[in-house]
Structures are given as C-alpha cells and as structure tokens.
Write a structure and sequence with these properties.
Length: 66
Amino acid sequence: MEIEFFTPGNLNQLWEFVRMLLKMVSPGILISFAITCAGIVLTIVVKMFSKSAKTSEEDDIEIRHY
C-alpha cells in the first residue's frame, strides 16, 4: 500500500491552508508585535527624559577657594 503525499491536489490544498493561515493570523501577530514595540520604545523614552531631568538637578557645581 503506497500513500503519495506530493500529489498536485494535496499540494494545492496545503498551499490554500497556508494562504488562509497567513491572511487570518498575520495581522493579529503584527498588531501585537507593534504594540509591544511601541510600549518598549515609550518606556525607554520616559526613562531617558526622567534620567536627564534628575541629572540636571544634581549637577550643582560647588566652588571652593583655597
């Protein structure tokens, strides 16, 4: 008994499943990835501005004359 997988009908059905999977799942994955990246970039920017605000307040210069 021989089972052939790579027949034209089976390959066409496989590529239809792949095409459907990419059309249905891809937008959800891309949107979730974009939201995650935006959150990471936003936290980096907020930390950068808060750190620069702290360093400007702490950079008081003390002058000593000997």
